[in-house]
Amino acid sequence: MNRCEAHGLATAPDGLCTLCRRRAQQASSRRFGGLIAVTLACAVAIAVLFVAGRAVLDAARAATAQTTAADTTTGASTAQIKVYTTKWCPACRATRRWLDEHKITYEERDVESDPAAAAAFRKLGGRSVPMFDIDGQVKAGFDPVWVTRAIEKSEARRAER
After folding, report:
1. pLDDT tens digit string along 60-83?
2. Which of 43, 50, 135, 144 is deepest in the core (most CB within 10 A)?
3. Domain 70-160, second-level architecture
């Protein structure tokens, strides 16, 4: 019969005594417990991001509802608006829908199907779509408040001329 060198106890066929086996199980349960803690932390982080994302989305919707600038709602804007998009992008679809609902005239430039649009997009520093170019004011991402303000600034500059 074999004996454990560390404890002097009889060993099982796997070569471990009762105390050595217990230590191995405790170590693996500590690793498993750490895994549970990491999993819970990830779940909490995802929940927080989801709630924060919803808050941002709700704020954007509220801001969209508050955009009541007369020029933007009637489509009488004289600003030159270029929107760099792709066909598959959900934010680009939301952008087009919002601009159409507010009767804002714009030039849509698809950066995937139009090489000239892609070159202009890169020249402006574009890395994500949608990207707006409103009379030289450039911003990536769909932000209805920014679009409204940029149009208003453009209109004010044109009125001063």
Report:
1. 666 655 554 434 444 567 889 999
2. 144
3. 3-Layer(aba) Sandwich (3.40)
